[in-house]
Task: structure prediction
Amino acid sequence: MKVDTMRKVDKWAGVPLSFLMSILMWLIGLFRFGRKKKPDLSKVLFIELSEMGSAIIVDPAMRKLQRDGGSELFFAIFEDNYKSLEILNTVPKDNIFRMRADGLLVLAIDVLRFMIWTRKRKIRTVIDLELFSRFTALLTALSGAGSRIGFASHHDEGLYRGNLINVPVRYNAHVHISVNFMSLVNSALGKHDTPYPTTPVTKEELQLARVTVPDAEAQKVREKVKKLYPAWKEERLLLFNVNASDMLPQRRWLPGNFAEVAKYLLSELDDILLIGTGAPAEREYVQSVVDMVGHERFVNSAGDFTFDELVPLYSISHLMLTNDSGPAHFSSVTDLKVFVIFGPETPALYGPLGNAESFYLGLPCSPCVSAANHRKTTCVTRPCITGISPDWIKGRLAEYLMEKS
Result:
């Protein structure tokens, strides 16, 4: 299902359904005498369907709930994105519900599957990580959980999704999303009893766990690199992630700019190998950038590395240049230095939690996508990202590589 179709369904079907479901939940509450109970944290379901990066960013909050609340964790996510949960394996595979988004009929079937799944597993509390999605709010209500925790607009206008969340937490658009996620968990733990998350969140709490890559997995990746470039003699690996998901294609820096940076680095440094990364479907796009450069030490690996091999690849690499997309967050579980190009979104809210540095112009119009518009923009010229000069990035990457040589 296309992203725009999902937005329209969420608006035109989601609003009336949220209203009707709110009435039903109110009536059910009357029969339960409207008593507000403390959340039962024995079995907690997190819902984040569409963002792979958020599945990484929320990990410190999930671990806190696991540690302080003694919770068994569950997660619901779109099938195409579930592999992101396997990077840190905080949630067991058997506790992950994979929802398909191949069409309205399939989605409807999976909603029924979801209702059966949550009841079989006796889910007691749901934490909705999505930013004002009516669909996920409806899922929280359909889960059968007694406590439903999620973001609320509170006194803010718009973003209606009924009264399906019975432990509302006011979303703060001025702090990093990881802080907002932690605030949801703090509410579940009973650290505050109003929609205002007054509990401080420290930097130490937001530290991501690091993955230890077995030598055998690292060696397997090295062998694949050798196949891509037989002349490789352990030169430093630089990863270029030149694409971005269709969720927000405006995040893509121009392919020609990536090519210009690659040409410069290859002309200045003879101890580097550039690898263009991506999924199998992105191979042609990545190849177009490789062809612009036309250098033997810039190879296309899109589709060659499996998702499970990405973290081992990051662990043996020296640097990654990427659009604002999933790999920027996946690499956060390693020590890899990552340079992220931000345009319609801002690193202040969505910067990776790892060893990352951002390129961001911060124009008066930026960020133009947010929870308030469901990350939709019609800007065509995209000066926020097309205005980022290749010279700026060339200079900073060269400086970093010189320092680490």
In short: The chain has two domains: 3-206, 215-403. The chain has a mean pLDDT of 92. The first helix runs from residue 3 to 12.
